[in-house]
Amino acid sequence: MLLRWLAAASRPGLAAVFATVLAAIAFAAPAAPPAAPAAPVVVIPLKGAVGPASASFIVRGMAHARDGGAQLIVLEMDTPGGLDLSMREIIQAILASPVPVAGYVYPGGARAASAGTYILYASHIAAMAPGTNLGAASPVQIGIGGPGSPGGAQKPEATPASAPAGAPPQDTMERKQMHDASAYIRGLAQLRGRNAEWGERAVREAVSLSASEAVAQRVADLLAPDLPALLRALDGRRVQAAGVERVLHTAQAPVQMLEPDWRSRFLAVITEPSVALILMMIGIYGLIFEFSTPGMVLPGVAGAICLLLALFALQMLPVSYAGLGLIALGVGCMVAELFLPTFGALGVGGIIAFVFGAVMLIDTDVPGFGIPLWLIGALALASAAFLLAVWTLLWRARRLPTVSGGDAMLGLPGVMLELRDGARQDGWAEVRGERWRVHGALPLAPGQRVRVIGRHGLLLEVRALDAAEDAAEGPVQDAANAPVTIHPSTRGA
């Protein structure tokens, strides 16, 4: 039958029908669906010290990646460490993230020291570029006076390994912080299946590792020279995130780079301890000028804005309230110096209190979060120069003659106009263009030059000028023809 059908199909008409049927079948068959595009990979940079601004940016960036359907978040790290609270905020966001996070120490020469080591341990994937390093995660004692200082605390940050490796802590607070930091990094290592023993050594002994050593000792998962190589190496890897296993398809995935927005950059500027201190000083002095000379408006508005920004920045930083109180005391003493006759005691004491307060203000030794001594010295010198200028102006003003009130008449010269009837020591005189009733201890005469030595209500007490004083005052104007202004108080007398 098949042979007969093929022979029949060889005829021209039947061949055409057969071709038409085959074409219809081909078009009717459903086409294979196109491959779905891979979910994007979001890259979030972590550059510089870990602080409130960088923590806020990273947490918001991770939320943006989750809402955008990203399959992987790459945290590009190059940090010397940072603040404990900011570090823990980032780690909590990583542990709760449903999107896997790959900590990537990049580029070559970068580091994940101190707080960066904790963040790398907390990441679902730990990768490093050749020529990078991590470690030195020992706690440091903060505050003035070193270990055991009042109000001092410790944070898991980098510290110089000046003490012998493995040396026991010196006090209870240091032991508590050391054990807490060791347990924290050990818990992160056990969660991610990394080398917990080395992590504890990094805390207790401040040791560090290069990238190749970190991979060999199971501290990091892999080496990757750049981001494309990292994505190729992670393609097909299975990762547990928020209790769900995910398979990464990153070889051809689109990459989205997140850059800090204006809010993050603004927070990074005002949370710089030096900027916060300057804003606080501008705010305090602006309000002082406004309260001392009401109505200027601009100093008050600018001072209030700067002071509020400074307070916002300080509440995000590890601030020592003792240092803040000393700064407030110092500024108060310098202001009181302008109004009290303390002969510089309050001003000098205020400058000293301000310097000590500024040194103690930021309660941490983390790199990038201290206030440089040159800035403290510059602000102290500026305050001293301001006080010196005010003292100079006050001294000059004190030596100037009185120009208002009743005492302004003392020492003024005058000319006798006439004597009262039957009196030789009482009469009328012209003083500063005004007609005043005068009295002298000695007899007076019309046209005589006199000087005011006292005032009793509307009566001036005068004395006659001697020859030298009379010559110094210049030629005597004819009292009979001199224009006289009648003082209002003498009308009708």
Topology diagram in text:
Layout: H1 2-9, H2 12-28, E1 41-47, H3 52-67, E2 72-78, H4 84-96, E3 101-105, E4 111-113, H5 115-122, E5 125-128, E6 133-135, E7 140-141, E8 154-155, H6 172-192, H7 196-204, E9 208-210, H8 211-216, E10 222-223, H9 227-234, E11 238-241, E12 244-247, E13 255-257, H10 262-270, H11 273-292, H12 298-316, H13 321-337, H14 345-360, H15 373-399, E14 413-419, E15 426-431, E16 434-440, E17 449-456, E18 459-464, H16 467-472, E19 485-486
Parallel strand pairs: 1-2, 1-13, 2-3, 3-5, 4-6, 5-10, 16-18, 16-19
Antiparallel strand pairs: 6-9, 7-8, 11-12, 14-15, 14-17, 15-16, 17-18
Task: Give a description of the structure.
The chain is of the alpha/beta class. A hairpin with a 2-residue loop joins strand 17 (449-456) and strand 18. The longest helix is centred in the last third of the chain and has 27 residues, at 373-399. It has a six-stranded parallel beta sheet. Strands 14-15-16-18-17 form a five-stranded mixed barrel. The protein has a three-stranded mixed beta sheet with strand order 4-6-9. The chain folds into three domains: 41-160 and 172-259, 2-enoyl-CoA Hydratase, Chain A, domain 1; 271-399, no CATH class; 406-490, Nucleic acid-binding proteins (OB fold (Dihydrolipoamide Acetyltransferase, E2P), Beta Barrel). Helix content is 45%, strand content 17%. Helix 4 runs parallel beside helix 5 (115-122) and helix 11 (273-292) packs antiparallel against helix 12 (298-316). The protein has helices at residues 2-9, 12-28, 52-67, 84-96, 115-122, 172-192, 196-204, 211-216, 227-234, 262-270, 273-292, 298-316, 321-337, 345-360, 373-399, 467-472, and strands spanning 41-47, 72-78, 101-105, 111-113, 125-128, 133-135, 140-141, 154-155, 208-210, 222-223, 238-241, 244-247, 255-257, 413-419, 426-431, 434-440, 449-456, 459-464, 485-486. The N and C termini lie far apart (156 Å). The protein is built from 16 helices and 19 strands.
